[in-house]
Write a structure and sequence with these properties.
The protein is α/β, with parallel strands linked by helices. Helix content is 38%, strand content 21%. The chain has two domains: 174 residues, 3-Layer(aba) Sandwich (D-Maltodextrin-Binding Protein, domain 2); 63 residues, Alpha-Beta Plaits (2-Layer Sandwich), CATH 3.30.70.
């Protein structure tokens, strides 16, 4: 039986909370001091972009795997995303350009959940404007829909040139149906070859004929994120495949009579972390 003297008082518990809050704040300030030194090292080594998609994906996986207790994972995920994004902004200021044509509230929720309020938010009405703004910037990011209805503009063809912006991430990283910022988005930036994560490749594919038969045939090996209107000149697909499996997907399209005319890598990203009821879903 617990004696009354062993039960902590409310004031004792609140003092413990205040102690932890102060420690967290001091640790964040200490992190800032390390980032300051990191900036100096990068300057001396003339390293490129401050964005490190592979490192961020590894950090988020560790975060999810060690989390437990009553604090919702959503809260922890958002806190860490904002910490990562804000400290990246401190290293090298950037803006987030977002396509609002998929719905302004959804896109703003995604941007604020993943990048916070310190990083400037620049709205655009359409994906082309986002890509052009990122291309013209020194180091900005763009948010584009990672799921689009068939028949729209093939904006992803603007990612095909070697020096054009490329897909470097897919958000949310923790993927589940009840996510508070559930809109699937691609993050695009200037190419980051030295820090890219290539678990999932995203290809811009040209076909001479796009049909339900072709869509069904390729679905076992790839996810067709979007497809343009078919015409006499064919159609354009945005296709995600596990790394190294592009040829299988293209073969499936060919066997279904789609007539593959070409495929250009539009970027890559980490496999989303499937959580809870969605954990068994195919990447």
């Amino acid at each position: 039986m617990t004696s009354p003297s062993s039960i902590p008082s409310l004031s004792d518990l609140r003092a413990e909370i205040d102690r932890i809050d102060e420690q967290m704040h001091r640790l964040l300030m200490e992190r800032g001091e390390i980032i300051d030194r990191l900036v100096a090292v990068k300057r001396n080594q003339t390293e490129g972009s401050a964005f490190r998609p592979a490192r961020e994906a590894a950090m988020m996986r560790r975060l999810v795997e060690r989390h437990h207790g009553l604090l919702p994972l959503d809260t922890v995920e958002s806190i860490w995303r904002v910490i990562i994004s804000t400290f990246t902004y401190v290293q090298a200021p950037y803006a987030v350009h977002a396509d609002l044509s998929v719905g302004e509230p959804l896109m703003r929720d995604s941007a604020r959940f993943h990048f916070g309020f310190t990083t400037p938010f620049v709205p655009h009405m359409g994906p082309r404007g986002v890509i052009e703004a990122v291309a013209a910037s020194k180091g900005d990011l763009g948010l584009l829909p990672a799921a689009a209805p068939y028949g729209g503009e093939a904006w992803w063809t603007a990612l095909e040139p070697a020096n054009a912006p490329k897909i470097i991430a897919r958000l949310p990283f923790v993927d589940r149906a009840d996510h508070p910022a559930a809109l699937p988005v691609f993050v695009v930036s200037h190419p980051i070859n030295d820090a890219a994560v290539t678990e999932v490749e995203v290809w811009s594919v040209r076909v001479s004929d796009w049909s339900p038969k072709a869509a069904s045939a390729v679905s076992a090996t790839a996810e067709v994120v979007a497809a343009s209107d078919g015409s006499l000149s064919g159609a354009a697909l945005l296709m995600s495949v596990p790394a190294g499996t592009r040829d299988r997907a293209l073969a499936a399209l060919t066997e279904a009579g789609a007539g593959v005319r070409g495929a250009v890598l539009a970027g890559s990203h980490a496999v989303p972390y499937r959580h809870g009821a969605d954990a068994s879903a195919r990447p």
